[in-house]
Specification:
- Belongs to the PPR family. PCMP-H subfamily.
- Keywords: Repeat.
- Helix content is 66%, strand content 3%.
- By secondary structure, it is mainly alpha-helical.
- Strands 2-1-3-4-5-6 form a six-stranded mixed beta sheet, covered by helices on one side.
- The chain starts with 20 loop residues before the first helix and ends in a 6-residue tail after the last strand.
- The structure holds one DNA strand of 10 nucleotides.
DNA sequence: ATAGGGTTAG
């Protein structure tokens, strides 16, 4: 950027700001005194040489020529030096210098010079203001802009077309589109620039509709649209995917023979890409004769936006092959989402390296795009270190960082980042909440969910469909299905995601019949189901044991709805068949399915073999899983638990060693409970809380009432030699039980007790919870990552399958 | 001598 230049005096480099306006005045005063002493008589400046010029005239003309040439060549030190030598420079001279400074990025200096001009009593003219107003835009200074605007009014230049156009542009670029509107409305004469400025101002403020309206009004006012209008209005069409309007503008472009204008070509390629017609972009691109970097960037972006990462990349490669074209930051920004989409971490990293070598940093947009790519490629540490080294961050980069944490399954981290962001006095927006709500969904209790919901409403995002959909899921996962239903009810225009989410919400709470009913409600409302609808529906059927219904829906997917089952659907079906009892059928299903089984698919079969206590199958399946994911902790733990149940302690030990040698650790089981209004986190055998002794006392009383744990829960399958080992595996003080007791202690009689767990509840605790619910006559709700068990009167809604 | 434009992150 511009280095500091001194415009308030020629001796010392400094700039005059509002704060030190007084010293500036003094300096300026001195200069005037000096100049006044030096030359007594000043001649009026003439525009050309004439034979009878005086010496003074000649030298002043010479100075003016030198000044102009210095300004033209960007030598401002010299230009300013000459300027200081001129006695009483004319308004024209001042204007030339202000223009030169503005055009070369010396915005502050241009503004300072204008203030000095004003102070020295040199009258500004209609030319002065467009230059200095442009400097305000460059400096992003609304304060200066408003001050200069008031000078415009006082001096009566607010009727000048050029000055008004400059003001319209200034206010729209400084984010005050209403001010632009006001000035525009008061203009008696408007030209194409005025209209175009309003149109592009609306586009910049994201107001697609106003910009289209303005474009229409412009034509109604019989101002013919030009290339500037076309480029702006295509931007408006891109904004909300107004394909029809875009095509209409394209027709006008052809009629006006503007279709070989390089910038219009770029805008058209971009517009078709953003409206989802990438074939049109491609066709246009192939006809472009002179391919600029911007055109390449547009087509790379168009493929990226239209889910064609491979073609996006091949464009990039072709671009590299063509001569004299250097990818710039925008190229990388447009390409990085394709890296993310393909999980092409190596390519993403090489983009990063390329950017470093080309000296593109710091660049907040590029850095955020890299952060996002790293997050989506599952490299949270790289995403985070990107953020840490960023010189400038903004709401978008914070949001991307939060998303990276959530995508990596680090919900706690995401919540911390969210807190940090708020303490930096950044105001969360709609996307912040859409990103952070899944973190609440995984970690929060209903009360915390209500708090974030209250914040959302307070900030005015309560009716956003994206947020409402995220809220439905959040409440359901936190255990409050009623709140989820309420949010759903309040959505005026429910979209397919709203329906998918509420269907799954009831599924995870064990109300499969409601899920099924909601699906038919959805059909009745004329909402077309998509693949995710069937994931919700099949998951609900499988969780709730509705085997026949699930199978029917699965077969109707293709026949009735023309949706090809994806890997998630097959996963649901394995779950479903697994619990039907016919485990061979489930295995056969996997062998026959047309997609390559993933570790998750095998994981479903592993769960089923555990339930049916089929250790041979479990071992076989575990082998498959570990060959796909050697670090699948869940698989080790499940197998180890099965060995423990069979008292095969040597196998238990060997799994423990195997995990240890790989540095794998069991997830520490913990339970969450609201205790006296606050979330309390409890681990197995946890004694760390102030409330611990009370909770343990309560548990002891209950244990005694329901019998010793080994009798109640051990189911007599353990013989004395196993007792010692068994004690080490005792579920007596598992977090779930401690949490249930804490809940019983801190809530009124008759209300349900709600516990959240990070791992599935063990069989012993499940049995205990059933008995406790009967004994205390309380409803106990225990949520694990998959399902909410609802215990009452000694029974659980899972019907003992989970 | 004065004003407007293409490709840019969540």
């Amino acid at each position: 950027m511009a280095t500091a230049l001194c415009v308030s005096c020629s001796s010392k480099p400094s700039t005059v700001t509002d704060k030190d306006f007084l010293p500036g005045r003094r300096k300026a005063g001195k200069i005037i005194e000096n100049l006044d002493v030096g030359i007594n008589v000043r001649s009026p400046i003439s525009t050309g040489d004439s034979p009878n010029m005086t010496r003074g005239m000649k030298s002043s003309l010479e100075q003016r020529r030198r000044l102009l040439s210095f300004v033209d060549s960007g030598c401002f030190e010299n230009a300013l030096h000459v300027f200081e030598e001129i006695t009483r420079p004319s308004t024209f001279i001042w204007n030339v210098l202000i223009r030169g400074l503005t055009d070369n990025g010396f915005y502050q200096e241009a503004i300072d010079l204008y203030y000095r001009m004003e102070w020295e009593g040199v009258g500004s003219d209609k030319y002065t203001f467009p230059f200095v107003i442009k400097a305000c835009v460059g400096l992003f200074s609304l304060v200066d802009g408003q001050r200069i605007h008031s000078r415009v009014i006082k001096m009566g230049f607010d009727k000048d077309l050029y000055v008004c156009n400059s003001l319209v542009i200034m206010y729209s670029k400084l984010g005050c589109i209403e001010q632009s509107e006001k000035i525009f409305a008061d203009m008696l004469v408007k030209d194409a620039v005025s209209w175009n400025s309003m149109i592009s101002g609306y586009v910049a403020s994201g107001d697609c509709l106003s910009s289209l309206t303005c474009f229409r009004d412009m034509q109604a006012a019989r101002i013919s649209c030009d290339r500037f209008s076309v480029i702006s209005i295509l931007g408006a069409c891109s904004l909300y995917g107004c394909l029809l309007k875009g095509k209409e503008v394209h027709c006008q472009v052809i009629r006006r023979q503007l279709d070989s204008d390089p910038m219009i070509e770029t805008s058209l390629i971009d517009m078709y890409g953003k409206c989802g017609l990438v074939e049109y972009s491609d066709r246009l691109f192939n006809r472009v004769s002179q391919r600029s970097v911007a055109v390449w960037n547009a087509i790379i972006g168009a493929y990226g936006l239209n889910d064609e990462p491979v073609r996006s990349f091949s464009c990039f490669e072709r671009m590299l092959e063509s001569d004299n074209l250097d990818p710039n930051a925008v190229t990388l920004i447009n390409l990085l989402p394709s890296c993310a989409r393909m999980r092409a971490l190596v390519q993403g990293k090489s983009m990063h390296g390329f950017a470093i070598r080309k000296g593109m940093f710091p660049h907040v947009v590029l850095e955020t795009a890299l952060l996002d790519m790293y997050g989506k490629c599952g490299c949270l540490n790289l995403a985070d270190s990107m953020f840490v080294q960023m010189k400038e961050t903004n709401l978008i980069s914070w949001n991307a960082r939060i998303a990276a944490y959530v995508q990596s399954g680090n919900e706690k981290g995401a919540l911390h980042v969210f807190q940090d962001m708020c303490s930096e006095h950044l105001h969360p927006d709609e996307i912040t909440f859409v990103n952070i709500l899944p973190a609440y969904a995984e970690t929060a209790l209903p009360k915390e969910g209500q708090q974030i919901h209250a914040n959302i409403i307070k900030l005015g995002f309560g009716s956003s469909i994206f947020i409402c959909n995220a809220l439905i899921y959040m409440y359901a996962k936190c255990g409050d299905i009623q709140a989820a239903q309420l949010v759903f009810n309040c959505i005026v225009y429910k979209d397919v995601i709203s329906w998918n989410t509420i269907i799954l919400a009831y599924g995870i709470h064990g109300f499969g019949e409601i899920s099924v009913r909601l699906f038919s409600d959805m059909m009745a409302e004329g909402i077309k189901p998509n693949g995710s609808t069937f994931v919700s529906l099949l998951a609900s059927c499988s969780i709730c044991g509705m085997v026949d219904e699930g199978q029917n829906y699965f077969s109707s997917m293709k026949t009735e709805y023309n949706i090809d089952p994806g890997i998630e659907h097959y996963g649901c079906m394995v779950d479903l068949l697994g619990r039907s009892g016919n485990i061979d059928l489930a295995k056969h299903f996997i062998d026959e399915m047309p997609l390559v089984p993933t570790a998750r698919i095998w994981g479903s079969l592993l769960s089923a073999s555990r339930y049916h206590r089929n250790i041979e199958l479990a071992e076989l399946v575990a082998d498959r899983i570990l060959s796909l994911e050697h670090d699948n902790t869940g698989c080790y733990v499940l197998l180890s638990n099965m060995y423990a149940e069979l008292r095969r302690w040597a196998d238990v030990e060997s799994i423990r060693c195997s995990m240890q040698s790989q540095g794998l650790r069991r997830t520490t089981a913990c339970s969450l409970i609201e205790y006296n209004g606050k979330a309390l986190q409890i681990t197995n055998n946890d004694c760390s809380h102030a409330e611990a002794s009370m909770i343990y006392d309560a548990l002891d009383i209950i244990s005694r009432k329901i019998g010793d744990d080994l009798h109640v829960c051990g189911v007599l399958k353990f013989k004395p030699p196993d007792l010692i080992r068994r004690r080490a595996h005792s579920a007596m003080y598992h977090s779930a039980r401690l949490a249930i007791c804490a809940g019983l202690l801190s809530t009124p009689v008759g209300t349900p007790v709600l516990v959240r767990k990070n791992v599935r509840i063990c069989e012993d605790c499940h049995n205990a919870a059933k008995i406790i619910s009967e004994m205390t006559d309380r409803e106990i709700v225990v949520g694990d990552p998959k399902f909410y068990h609802r215990f009452s009167n000694g029974k659980c809604t899972c019907k003992d399958y989970w």
